[in-house]
Amino acid sequence: MNILCPTDFSPVANFAFNAACQLAQRLGATLYLFHCHELGKDWSTDEEWNEQFDPLQEAAAGAAGEQLDKLRELAENKGVACEVEQREGDFFEELVKVTEEMPFSFVVMGSHGASGKREWLIGSNTQKAIRKLHINTLVVKGPISELKFPKAVFATGLLMEDQIAFKHFLELTDDLGVEEVHVLTIHTSGLFTPPQIVMQEALKDFKAIAGGYPCQSHYYDDISVEAGIRRFVDEEKADLIAISNHVRAPFKRIFRGSTVEMIVNHANVPVLSIDYPAVS
Prior knowledge:
By secondary structure, the protein is an alpha/beta fold. Helices cover 46% and strands 21% of the residues. Strand 7 (180-187), helix 7 (196-210) and strand 8 (215-221) form a beta-alpha-beta unit.
């Protein structure tokens, strides 16, 4: 089992590193630290600039390599098998390549979030990562002293794909220290929102899937799905939000925003984006 932890050596990335180490310890997994040094503008036609710029690039890459080695040593001191992967180029292109070259069970990332125009135009790095990767991704917002989330919320739009994701999530509960699951769906005033009775009946399917696992279902009204999820999490003092990220709808994301990406940016607790490769 392999866990991927991208890092830019920032404080929030270090929070993710510590969480990834704990998860690797629990699973007996190998931790792969990934850093990509993004090159600047192509100045290849300007020889004078390249003579000055290349040493700076080399120095930055060297410093990053030293930081990766320090993190690897820290992981190994915790008893975690650790490898480092340092590349140059576009961060997201290289990140996708790494996940295509090797199977990973988890990605663990930190999130700075994004806001305002920046969120709608380009989003945060973590937003882009969960948009491109088809791997379960744990997004960490702050320090986690113990990787344990006793009360978890599984947010669902009641799609069939969500039921598959819910089954995947239940398989992860022991690894994440989850003791009780709250299945949550949000009713908004949209034209195409199903009637309340239909949504409440659909929630019963999730409780049936949970079997004997401690599970409660909840139906909430709010102005938006994201606002409802965050309000419920705050009221219930939940420790983790789990949400399916398997369905891709680019047109909807552009015009309405992706609920998963907005939750990743705005939630105050860790978020588990549940995704998996498409079955052909």
